[in-house]
Amino acid sequence: MTFSELQLHPDVLAGLEAIGFENPTPIQEQAIPSIIEGKDIIGCAQTGTGKTAAFLLPLMHKICKEEVSDDHVNSIIICPTRELAVQIDQQLQGLSYFTGVSSIAIYGGGSGDTFTQEKKALSEGAHIVVGTPGKLISHLNLGYVNVSQLKNLVLDEADRMLDMGFMDDIKKIISFLPKERQNLLFSATMPPKIRNLAKEILKDPVEVNISISKPAERVTQVAVLTHDNQKIETIKHLLRYNDVPSLIIFASRKIKVREIAKALQKEGLNAKDISSDLEQKEREDILREFKNKQLQILVATDVISRGIDVDNIDMVINYDAPNDPEDYIHRIGRTARAATEGEAVTFINEEDMYKFSRIEQMMEQEVRKIQPPAALGPGPEYNPKSRGNTQNRGGRKPFRKGQRK
Questions:
Q1: Do β-strands 297-300 and 342-348 pair in parallel, antiparallel, or remain unpaired?
Q2: Distance between CA 127 and CA 77 in Å, rounded?
Q3: How is domain 3-210 classified at the architecture level of CATH?
Q4: Residue 364, by phi and psi: left (phi above 0), alpha (psi -120 to 50) or beta?
Q5: Cα–Cα distance, 183 to 259 (Å, whole number)
Q6: Are 103 and 96 in contact (CB under 8 A)?
Q7: CATH for 219-403?
Q8: What is the pLDDT of residues 82-96, one digit of tens each?
Q9: What's the angle, vertex CA 364, arms to CA 359 and CA 365, rounded to 5?
Q10: Per-residue pLDDT averaged across 92-113, rounded?
């Protein structure tokens, strides 16, 4: 199927052609016709599946077809983080080049001048507003955002927003909106709390479900059985024996992220850390450097794992196994995007073995396990209690890119 077969507005198709997009992804193919028909949607898809365009394209189509004025807000997109808000707005601006659709991204962390600029833009009107819950409420409470004719509400990364405690904020935002509207809910996972939210705000939704909780097929996964004091040296070994122009290292704690970045910088490696401790401009500058290939190694927390929109990332390293198996999917989903291949390496110490066994159970897939480089000494045996006497897969030689299957 091609995008033209989805009967999108010619101006929207012109934008897709200019960018070089010809064929919709599965979630786009399934979601776009129903959204154009005005139906509520509950969409479940992991990152890298084209989820954002799945709701942006039909929203733009309807604005163009109905020749909607931008003196009021037509659509609001709520997302959990400022990085994701910026990412969505940037993609929207690229896709809408020929359409005349206007948009604005609003999010916390800016100065007073930023708020004043947002207020002015919102007062003048925009077709689509993309924002984080807290900042949206701040503007709506002041009464100058005209949502009386709003037609569409999108909740993106709904599971993450609920995890971050935004349920009450979402309900508060909805209280400002017309009851007659189209609701689109997108989530990477579909736990009971998301189902309950969907029941509250969606009307007879069409469900679109694309490969829940499965890593992209093009990601080569491997787990290295390491003690903590072997991890930095193992990273150095990986970089020495593999061509890795672009690498993300994820860690669960902000303090650990900073420690890793400092240790790598001390070794002369081009690395920077990013977490919620940094000011907004610092985070945006670092992400820009990474996206432009001026920065080789980005060390990050899970908080921003879904907000990094960078293609051609060669490798992801999990410095530790995340507590939530779903976070593992999102971490390694940063690589092997847009029909490329990538590698995901997870360091497992004794404490992480049980967590990693849960990740394997969720994926219904066993990840190959190897020992660290021989010069560093042996790592721990892989034998999580929940998996019984799992056969140890240690003792293999330090891996190189061509050896991974």
A1: unpaired
A2: 11
A3: 3-Layer(aba) Sandwich (3.40)
A4: left
A5: 43
A6: yes
A7: 3.40.50.300
A8: 889 999 999 999 999
A9: 80
A10: 88
